[in-house]
């Protein structure tokens, strides 16, 4: 999966005064080249401070994972659609006893008593109780510092650590707590209340997430057309159904999950306002709540930054898939919030612990010992839905390769289980979350969209002045890449190799339409994962929000809309006695004609025009937008 030409954080020499030279038998396992923005090192941590050590073990057979996933998701495979059970997946990839024994022996040789060493029944991690900073510094050949954030928070971390070479190569994935100090910060609850009174709220999401939808002008519902005449300036349910040939739903035989985090919450009154205008049968209906780590809808804070995302996701997805029920995975309590990993814990009990489990300071830490915090950790309490849409994202550079790799493998396992995982590709073009690398020069790809085992969804728009009825009747593509308020996230990974299913499409783009940039701007090797995979409209959505109507923009809209179409297809497959589509990328790249190709527009960022939409796949809109009847016919024919 990892390319030697990509960014490498493991097995490098340590640079900097905060990282002592590795012992002769040790190699650097992970390191950071720079401190995340907003943080500053302060003082060494006192040696007597206690920090429990967690050693994440390498899983077995991960190198075979892509082949296994290809067998069940490649439309030309004899095993297509034969998804694995949860037990089969755990048994295939569980760490070996040899890894447990090797790590345990290392700890014992370092003088750690056996009664302080434990490992979970699934062998995913080894833990040392009552370890001190002085002990960890000697064990890992590192130094721990306090880091202060400009917002006043403090964190403990190191910048690199070393372990014996045989462990680094064969047995250990990651160790915590170490260098994972990229902590997204937010004010505490009292500060939130104060800011609410001042109407000066920050745009908050889950830990590790950003890219919330962008608000626009207020909508005058009195003058808004009830036909398709205004789809170039106002996207409604009817516009989407016309653009993508979506028929109304018939069944409630499949499962569709929308994931939200922390304070992000819908308002029931907003849902009913929307439903009263666009789907009266839904008035009074709510998503099925799947609370994760204390997550619950809140109405205390009513503001676009807190209600916009969830309102958007649910108003459109619930309407498009009705009568199917939508499940809301509300993740994280009001004190700690949560990360993607906390959600993954809830649908896979083994994920709570394998490869070291969640990372304190990066993921929400549960049980949450803060007053009012959730006093448990939810592991494997829900079966994963057939489709998961998440409208949040961050950047690859926010994490180490080991952290991103661990999460990416979980998406691979979900694909093996027959789950379709969709993530929005971001709203800032080639500048992930509005930031560029290397002093503003290098493009910043988003994550998890760069993971080869998720479907990354970019954004399109209907240009002003376009009559979609005329365009559709003439067979003309009515959409271009989104260049209104937001730009579709897209580009090339710095972490992940190119998957086989997209190699030909990406090579065609790079050969026929070579971008005008050097390797200084982006990973132009042609061997890295490219994104997005597909796209859907992301501009001028008409949203009921905080009792009013407002326009909204973002791939935050694209992902749940595309997910709704996949869920409609799954319902039809279930009615025909067939399995859900699962990981859709290999099929869509093999049969791109079931999508509407988008050939105009760019995704500017980092003081450039970004990439350009072109015929076929491109790193702006992917393979294009959905054509529901064509996609349904294809997937029905494959089983």
How would you characterize the overall build of this protein?
Helix 1 packs parallel to helix 11, helix 8 packs across helix 9 (304-321) and helix 9 runs parallel beside helix 14. The chain is of the alpha/beta class and 639 residues long. The strands form eight sheets. Strands 11, 12, 13, 14, 16, 18, 19 and 22 form an eight-stranded mixed β-sheet that branches. It has a four-stranded antiparallel β-sheet with strand order 4-5-3-9, with helices on both faces. It is 27% helix and 18% strand. The longest helix has 21 residues, at 555-575. Keywords: Calcium, Glycoprotein, Hydrolase, Metal-binding, Protease, Secreted, Serine protease, Signal, Virulence, Zymogen. InterPro entries: Peptidase_S8/S53_dom, Peptidase_S8/S53_dom_sf, S53_propep, Sedolisin_dom, Tripeptidyl-peptidase_I. The active site is at 309 (charge relay system), 313 (charge relay system), 556 (charge relay system).
């Amino acid at each position: 999966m990892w390319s030697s030409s990509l960014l490498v954080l493991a097995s490098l020499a340590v640079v900097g005064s905060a990282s002592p030279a590795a012992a002769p038998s040790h190699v650097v396992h992970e390191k950071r080249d720079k401190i995340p923005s907003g943080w500053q090192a302060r003082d060494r941590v006192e040696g007597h401070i206690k920090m429990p050590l967690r050693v994440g073990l390498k899983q077995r057979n991960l190198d075979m994972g892509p082949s296994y996933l290809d067998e069940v998701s490649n439309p030309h495979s004899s095993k297509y659609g034969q998804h694995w059970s949860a037990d089969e997946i755990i048994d295939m990839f569980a760490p070996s006893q040899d890894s447990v024994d090797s790590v345990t022996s290392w700890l014992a040789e370092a003088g750690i008593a056996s009664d302080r060493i434990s490992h979970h029944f699934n062998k995913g991690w080894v833990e040392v109780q009552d370890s001190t900073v002085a002990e960890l510094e000697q064990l890992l050949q590192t130094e721990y510092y306090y880091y202060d954030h400009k917002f006043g928070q403090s964190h403990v971390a190191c910048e690199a650590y070393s372990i014996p070479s045989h462990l680094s190569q064969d047995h250990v994935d990651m160790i915590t707590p170490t260098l994972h100090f990229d902590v997204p910060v937010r004010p505490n609850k009292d500060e939130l209340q104060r800011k609410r009174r001042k109407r000066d709220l920050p745009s908050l999401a889950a830990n590790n997430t950003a890219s919330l939808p962008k608000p626009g002008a207020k909508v005058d519902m009195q003058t808004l057309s009830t036909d398709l005449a205004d789809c170039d300036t106002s996207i409604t349910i009817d516009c989407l159904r016309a653009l993508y040939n979506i028929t109304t739903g018939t069944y409630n035989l499949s499962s569709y999950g929308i994931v939200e985090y922390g304070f992000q919450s819908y308002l029931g009154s907003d849902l009913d306002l929307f439903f009263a205008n666009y789907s009266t049968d839904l008035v009074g209906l709510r998503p099925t709540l799947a609370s994760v780590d204390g997550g619950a809808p809140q109405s205390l804070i009513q503001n676009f930054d807190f209600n916009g995302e969830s309102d958007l996701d649910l108003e459109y997805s619930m309407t498009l898939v009705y009568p199917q029920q939508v499940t809301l995975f509300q993740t994280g309590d009001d004190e700690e919030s949560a990360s993607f990993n906390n959600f993954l814990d809830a649908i896979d009990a083994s994920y709570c612990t394998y490869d070291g489990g969640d990372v304190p300071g990066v993921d929400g830490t549960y049980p949450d010992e803060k007053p009012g915090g959730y006093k448990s950790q939810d592991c494997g309490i829900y079966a994963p839905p057939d489709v998961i849409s998440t409208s949040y994202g961050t950047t690859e550079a926010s994490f180490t390769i080991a952290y991103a790799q661990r999460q990416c493998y979980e998406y691979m396992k979900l694909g093996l289980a027959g789950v379709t995982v969709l993530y929005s590709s971001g709203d800032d073009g080639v500048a992930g979350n509005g930031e560029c690398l290397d002093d503003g020069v290098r493009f910043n790809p988003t994550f998890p969209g760069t993971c080869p085992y998720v479907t990354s969804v970019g954004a399109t728009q209907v240009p002003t002045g376009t009559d979609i009825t005329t365009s559709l009747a003439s067979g003309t593509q009515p959409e271009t890449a989104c260049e209104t308020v937001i730009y579709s996230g897209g580009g090339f990974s710095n972490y992940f190799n190119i998957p086989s299913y997209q190699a030909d499409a990406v090579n065609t783009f790079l050969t026929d339409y070579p971008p005008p940039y050097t390797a200084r701007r982006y990973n132009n090797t042609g061997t890295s994962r490219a994104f997005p995979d597909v796209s859907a409209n992301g501009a001028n959505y008409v949203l009921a929000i905080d009792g009013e109507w407002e326009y909204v923009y973002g791939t935050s809209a694209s992902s749940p809309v595309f997910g709704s179409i996949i869920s409609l297809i799954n319902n039809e497959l279930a009615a025909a006695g067939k399995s859900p589509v699962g990981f859709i990328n290999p099929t869509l790249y093999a049969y791109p004609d079931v999508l509407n190709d988008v050939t105009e527009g760019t995704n500017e960022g980092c003081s450039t025009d970004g990439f350009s939409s072109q015929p076929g796949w491109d790193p702006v809109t992917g393979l294009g937008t959905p054509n529901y009847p064509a996609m349904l016919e294809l997937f029905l024919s494959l089983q």
